[in-house]
Every structure is written in structure tokens, then in C-alpha cells.
Amino acid sequence: MAEQESWISALLDFGGVLATFVTAVATIFLWRVTKLLAKETTRMVEASDQPHVVATLAPNRWSLRHFDLVVENTGNATAYDIKIAFNPPLENGEARREDAKIPFEQVSVLKPRQELRSYLADINVLEGKSFEVTVSWRHGSKDKPRETNVYTLSMADYIGASELGRDPMIDLARSLEKVEKSLGSMVRSRRLKIDVYTSGDRRQERQETRAALDRVEPRRMSAGAGQQSSDDVAPGAGS
Fold first, then answer.
1. How does residue 161 score in pLDDT terms, banded at 50, 70 and 90?
2. Could you tell me which residues come within 8 angstroms of residue 108 by beta carbon, excluding any fewer than 6 positions away?
3. Strands 79-87 and 106-110, how do they pair?
4. Looking at the whole model, is its pTM more than 0.90?
5. How confident is the model at residue 168, as a pLDDT?
6. For 102-117, what is each residue's pLDDT tens digit?
7. Centroid of chain to Cα 132
8. What count of Cα atoms within 13 Å lies in the side-chain half-sphere of residue 115?
9. Residues 6+ apart with CB under 8 A from 66
10. Residues 92, 103: Cα–Cα separation, whole Å
């Protein structure tokens, strides 16, 4: 009986030690999983809070043959100290001076979803070309490393492009421009022809109306008298 109790006691002790060991292993495992989840969460937060700057050549709203240089921050964080380089270098079109500086080669700050746009050249200058674009920026202070994005921009993407109709905003702008020109010509004119309707005009109009009624009234009375005479003569003629 004593031996049986000792075996039971030993078995219970062993079970307690085993349970303690399993708990310790589970705690260590849970700690590692929690640490891994914390790292992944931090990485996802950092990845979701990143700027991403791209530079493209897009058709101008007024004409498909003319292109704008567009720099946009498509990320969801502010980009600083942005530098943009095209290889081969961009050239100015006919509407810009040949010695004019290419815009947006350096941009100090670009907020999320912010876009900078400037006319560059027509299709004759850009047709058939392909550019290697290098865009770099910082996400914060100068102590942080620069992030770089390198890609190829081909103008062959716009071969065969066309448009149906015009942008309603462009039609509105042209209509407002016509109104502005009309108003400008009126303001610049030294003499304005103005028709004024005064109380004297109203008095003269009433007098003319009264005179017309006075001329009509005798005619109406004479016509009524003639009709009555005809009615009086008719019975005698029948007898």
C-alpha cells in the first residue's frame, strides 16, 4: 500500500513537471509569434506610409499633339528633396526658348497625391524616343537614405491615340474668353449708344394712343349710323 502511494505521488510530481515544461515551451512559442507579428505589423505600417514619385510625359488637355511634363507623388507620404533625370535629356519645344531650363529637375517638397505639370514640347520633338527616367527622393530628414526609382518611358505608348469630342471644361473656358473679349471691347469704347425710356416717352406714348382712339371713334359711330339706316329702309322696300 505504501509503495502504491509512493508511485502515485511520483506520478503526480512527474505530471506537474511535465505540465510546467509544456507551459514554458508554449510561452516561449507565443513570445516568438508575438514578436514576429509585431515586426510584420511595423513593416506593414512603414510600407503603407511611403512616398512614390513618378515623372511622365502626358498629352496636354488642349491638344493631343502637345505634351506636358508631369511629376506626381502617387504614395501616401510626403516626399522631400526630389531629383529627376531623363536619359537622353529632354528638349524644349517651339513654344519654349531653346535655352529655357527643363522644369522639375529638382523639387523640394511634394505632398501625397500632389501633381506638378508644365508644357514641354510637341510630338515632333518627342516622337519615337524612349527615356530612362531616374527619380530619387527622401522620406524625411537628410539622415535617412535616398530612395530611387528607375524605369523606362516610351513615347510609342501614344501611337494611334485619338480623342472623341472635346473636354467640356475647355468649351467653357473658350466661351468665357469670348465673353471677356466682348466686355473688354465695350469698356474700351469711348462712346456707348444707350436707349433710355423716360417719363416723357411714356407721356408721349399715351398722347399718341389717345389721338389714335379719337380718330377711330368717329368712324365707328358713322359706321353704326349707316347700319341703322339700312335697317329702317329694308321694311318699306319689302312692302
1. confident
2. 80, 81, 82
3. antiparallel
4. no
5. 67
6. 999 999 999 999 999 9
7. 28
8. 10
9. 59, 60, 93, 95, 119, 121, 122, 123
10. 10
